[in-house]
Amino acid sequence: MYDFIIVGAGSAGCVLANRLSADGRSKVLLLEAGGPDKKQEIHIPAAFSKLFKSEVDWNYQTAPQAHLGGRQLYWPRGKMLGGSSSMNAMIYQRGHHSTYNRWALENPGWSYNDLLPYFNRAEDYTLENTPEHGHDGPITISALRSPHALSQTFIDAAVSLGYPKNYDFNDGEQEGFGHYHVTQRKGKRCSAYVAYVKPILNRPNLTVMTHAQVISLLWDKQTCVGVKVQREGRTEELQAQGEVILSGGAINSPQLLMLSGVGPGQHLQDMGISVVADRPGVGQNLQDHLFVGVCHYVTNGGSLASAESVWNILSYLLFKRGMLTSNVGEAGGFVTLQEDSEGPDMQFHFAPGFFIEHGFVQPEGHGFSIGPTLVKVKSRGFIQLASPDPLEHPHIDPQYLSHPNDMKLFLAGLKLGREIAQASPFDYCRGEEYIPGNDLQTDEQLEEYIRQNAETLYHPACTCSMGTGKDAVVDGELRVHGVEKLRVVDTSVMPEIINANTHLPTVAIAERASDLILGTASS
To answer: Is this model's pTM higher than 0.85 or not?
Structure first.
């Protein structure tokens, strides 16, 4: 019997495990379907793409996308302690304040100012002593130790076009270009597990259980009383006298709700699942960020193609410096391309190397990649069960670019990415454009290029949205509507996706959720 059972040891679950067990009395169980974070590629920043399609990856595929040439897109998600925070690009972003303020219109307590103390509580910001950041939190925020010279060239190129330089995207001013700050500690990844759970494993009231896949929730009428877990070839039932908290992310949390009878009633009946609570919004409102590459060969100065040289390996092993400390997406920026956008609508990620098809395609030689990223998305998709089998992946249909404004904005971002690549600071090293390629110039050609080449930036969200309407899944305290003693705390509760990388916003959500659960949140 536990006081709290947390399903999923990712960005949110690790926060909750720490905060809910801090009193030393509450018995907390943290369940993770994957295993420990032992693979060395987890901790070496530049190696994260080598985790893709490995045993620590859920390795999801979307349904064929009608507006992306019928392609099925690959979605990596972390299946290990730390979840996707153990395989992301470690970019530290909060997102624009206007998105949080829109959340708060229906959900008081979730404005940017409300969440700011929770961002600060999470941070160990090492760059400077500033009131905009926290300095005593679990997650180390640092500058890259050995950024590549090409990343500065990218920043200089954007500034030469009239865009501002931005040293800190998270101090309230998001527009501009600069180096990204990262969740790294002394040249190694600082995942949510490393930050929040590893230091407290000796707490006697905290149990961390790996290779434990939750296959359903347990009910006493409409009260959640525990979980059914498949582990080591056995199925066991684990009881919660307090609450069960789902922190599986935008895919796993709605899937588990539906498997357990909470979701669109007709869909559940079609799957042969008894309906506990008819909640039509479970799995709906799926949002994600798409990016597409502008890649050039480099004729001078090299790139991350040399990251695994003997010198760089030794530099990392001995000093935790050199190219292997790179997060690949070293620099970037935010711009507003449409006048009616509240906050930037296009983000850029810059890699001082080729990053094509998740890193699986590596042209010979050196290159750089500029990734225009659509962060104000109007398209909405959904997740449904593909079968009542809990071990089968769900049906994922993001319906990318189904809203015509998304393609319009994406096209403008692609053109700007090309313009930055052609700016004079790149003159010393710019080689031939590898993709899209000089033969693609018209809007029609570039739109087709987007359809054939756009990929996820790994930010699925919003499938268990917070709110009060019939399509809302959780309320403002993240309690699941229609049932008792069950909450969802992860990226899925966002009503609208933030316009930046989603890891730290998810941490802030979990920090506030821990106060809500413990009854210590300020009103």
So the answer is: yes
